Amino acid sequence: MIEILDGLKEAFRLVLGFDEELLEISLRSLRVTLSALLIASVIAIPLGTYLAVQRFRYRRIVISMINALMGLPPVVVGLVVYIMLSRSGPFGVLNLLFTPTAMIIAQVIIITPVIASIAHQSMRELWAEYHDLLISLNTTKRQRILTLIYDGRRNLLTAALAGFGRAIGEVGAIMIVGGNIDHVTRVLTTAIALETGKGDFALALGLGFVLIGLAIFVNIAIHTLSRTEREGLW
Amino acid sequence: MIRLLWAVIALVWAQIAAADTMRLAVTTSFENSGLADVLVPAIKEDLDLDVQLLVVGTGQALRLGQSGDVDAILVHSKTAEIDFVTQGHGSHRREIMYNDFVVIGPVADAASISGASGAEDAFARIAVAQVPFVSRGDNSGTHKAELAIWQRAGIDTNATLEWYQSVGAGMGAALNTAAGLNAYVLSDRASWLNFGNKDGLALLYSGDPALFNQYAFIAVNPSKNAHVRNDLAILLETWLTSTRAADLINAYTINDETLFVFNATPQ
User: Fold this and answer.
1) Which CATH number is associated with domain A2-225?
2) Do B111 and B184 share a domain, yes or no?
3) CA B145 – CA B137 distance, rounded (Å)
4) Which H or E run contains B90?
5) Contacting residues of A for B11, CB less than 8 Å apart
6) Beta bridge partners of B212
7) Rounded mean pLDDT of chain A?
8) pTM of the full structure
9) Å from A222 to nearest chain B CA?
10) ipTM greater than 0.90
């Protein structure tokens, strides 16, 4: 129990002391995760909406697959991305292994199914509401998808934030493809794993509290900027 | 507010220009000892070379070297290293320094290994007393050294032994597990001295020549992986075997205890 208090103290010391290394790894955590979130959202939100609007033969199987992929084990994703990007692998020439880009790739794979699945779920409900109106207006498929995305933006924000939550706290995959190199690929989660390994629980917990604080800050910032919880249903 | 957000985004994405860099896979025991924090800045100062450390077990380090994902490795498992070089993955093996393994266990020492006559005897006493023992189980240099001692003591660790816990983790994690289980564990001296969570554990046995732990540097063979920075690896090898490195390594102490002894021979 004492150690948790020590961890809190350590967190305050790190934040109030403007620890340079902490700032560096926190910014890197944000950069990697927000990049991954942006890319994953661009793929997953139209995909989720398309799956809500479009009927086709293997729709149910595709949706089940995406739901199942939400549970992808990060270590396996990390290992597969490692093998792909390794010098002896097919994309070795790109020289991406042990760079932040490799970490972004791994995180995109992990969070795309999460965002797509949640997006699909909420878009399906919205589509049930909008179905008759959009059909009667003789809209094209593209217009339908864009309308749903625009009007369902609050729900999609929740989907994106779920993806953010999964990515910012992830350690298994980015440890393998990033390598936890000091000043290059060390982020908050890998630093926590490292300090735990050294038996320095206070510092590890301190970093953990900083990570939680950062996640809360990002969520509040995004909610404030998008003015949710202020007006109407949408 | 929106403008502020863009400013934050710009800051987050800002990149830093990189100098000459090479990648070196090292063992967890080397990194946990804290010596890396002394050597890496000195290398940067002397050679203007950024050494990026990949901290992994010896098994994974050898694997990274084999696929050409690192430029050189610094590990401690002689047989595996010699195999690595004979298979042509590394050009040659250069011994740099050594430290030693120590047997850590609960302060009460139920197996009374502190009076053992040698490493094998200490391990045999643990087996007889059937007290919990934590094994790294990750194919690392320390794990291989541990298995060799069990073998010489005539104990088959492949058999299901209730007291033998293979955790498959790094040195620090294994020490944490041993602290939690009140178990015995084989550690390198440096990791043990630098370990922060010694709760109820103590150094119980050390000093047998069988516990000698040699670190060696192997540059990845450029004829197998043309892209590796062999020039930088050789530069680093020359530095690691220089008197400057010798002074830094021999002078590194924790609680007034010397951790590593430099023993590279000049070529």
Assistant:
1) 1.10.3720.10
2) yes
3) 11
4) strand B90-106
5) 27
6) B100
7) 90
8) 0.82
9) 10
10) no
